[in-house]
Design the sequence.
């Protein structure tokens, strides 16, 4: 923990410079606020219709997420732009699926994010002339979807959460703990807000940021309060034994509920991917923080914390939190997954086929 404090102190000037740069960039780009942000329809040249579904598929991003970055401007990377679900959306679209990427606040509570989600879903329903959508959600996106499941289940055909911290994250608990002084907590929150603002700018959006609310929601205490209000799809004994999947509700008012999870292998590193080293460090917080008992995790979310609805894989996939959405440095460079890591693409393809069978 002393090392972290040292890095925070040394990084203060860098963070301040980053904040100034972001504000200048925001002013220059002139990104404007609209009452309702339109969802992004991701299309590719359709090669077959093997993944065509009756209802559109809506991809819901997590904290520090986005719909699409650098729209049409990425020359170096193996893509015209960077989607949060990198190349996954294009792959599904090329096989006939109608897929939309949702834009919500990068760092905010699900109360705030749900308003953006439901507004954009209504736009999709009107455009596609359908009554429902399938949601596939990563990380905090799954928490936001549970809001919508409670308030408007009639809009949903299914909800799938991928590595969503339904029981909270040790990283959020650490940020809120006494291990960090109030001074550095304020720096972290300001940095997260400015990072969210930068993401919004580069994705052409402008949602307000509230990192304090986001971190609280993702903490163990915030998650417990949230789960009391929105228990649908959680393990029946989520308070004491979240790893027990027996009796989990898998269908709520006609909405099918699914999840899958992953863990980052502790004794391996992915080459050319510095984020994997960072997630190795953050994963160790699940050992030091009291509420997580050394739970296996993907660097940010614990294995059992991900359980929701029908748990597709009892044996977790070998991925870190970014590999779950194919957003690793290796993927951005057009390289295959590192040895020993699970390729996320077949997981999404097989799941869309699963959704097809339910329509």
Sequence:
């Amino acid at each position: 923990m002393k090392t972290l404090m040292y890095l925070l102190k040394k990084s203060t000037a860098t963070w301040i410079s980053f904040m100034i740069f972001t504000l200048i960039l925001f002013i220059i780009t002139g990104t404007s606020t609209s009452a309702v942000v339109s969802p992004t329809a991701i299309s590719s040249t359709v090669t077959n219709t093997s993944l065509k579904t009756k209802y559109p598929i809506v991809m819901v991003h997590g904290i520090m997420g986005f719909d699409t970055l650098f729209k049409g401007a990425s020359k170096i990377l193996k893509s015209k732009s960077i989607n949060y679900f990198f190349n996954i959306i294009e792959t599904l679209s090329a096989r006939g699926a109608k897929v939309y990427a949702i834009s919500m606040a990068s760092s905010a509570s699900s109360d705030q994010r749900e308003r953006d989600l439901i507004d954009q879903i209504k736009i999709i329903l009107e455009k596609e002339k359908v009554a429902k959508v399938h949601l596939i959600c990563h990380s905090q996106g799954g928490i936001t979807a549970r809001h919508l499941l409670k308030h408007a289940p009639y809009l949903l055909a299914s909800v799938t959460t991928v590595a969503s911290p339904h029981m909270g994250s040790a990283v959020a608990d650490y940020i809120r703990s006494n291990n960090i002084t109030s001074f550095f907590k304020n720096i972290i929150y300001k940095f997260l807000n400015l990072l969210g603002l930068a993401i919004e700018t580069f994705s052409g959006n402008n949602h307000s940021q509230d990192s304090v609310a986001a971190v609280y929601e993702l903490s163990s205490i915030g998650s417990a309060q949230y789960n009391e209000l929105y228990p649908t799809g959680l393990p029946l004994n989520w308070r004491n034994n979240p790893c027990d999947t027996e009796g989990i509700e898998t269908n709520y008012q006609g909405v099918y509920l699914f999840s899958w999870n992953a863990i980052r292998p502790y004794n391996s590193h992915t080459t050319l991917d510095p984020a994997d080293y960072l997630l190795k460090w953050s994963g160790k917080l699940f050992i030091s923080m009291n509420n997580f008992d050394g739970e296996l995790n993907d660097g940010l979310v614990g294995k059992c914390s991900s359980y929701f609805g029908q748990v597709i894989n009892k044996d977790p996939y070998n991925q870190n939190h970014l590999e779950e959405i194919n957003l690793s440095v290796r993927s951005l460079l057009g390289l295959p997954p590192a040895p020993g890591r699970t390729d996320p693409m077949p997981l999404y393809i097989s799941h869309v086929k699963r959704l097809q069978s339910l329509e």
User: Anything to note?
Assistant: The domain at 34-358 is CATH 3.40.50.1820 (Rossmann fold). The chain is about 40% helix and 10% strand.
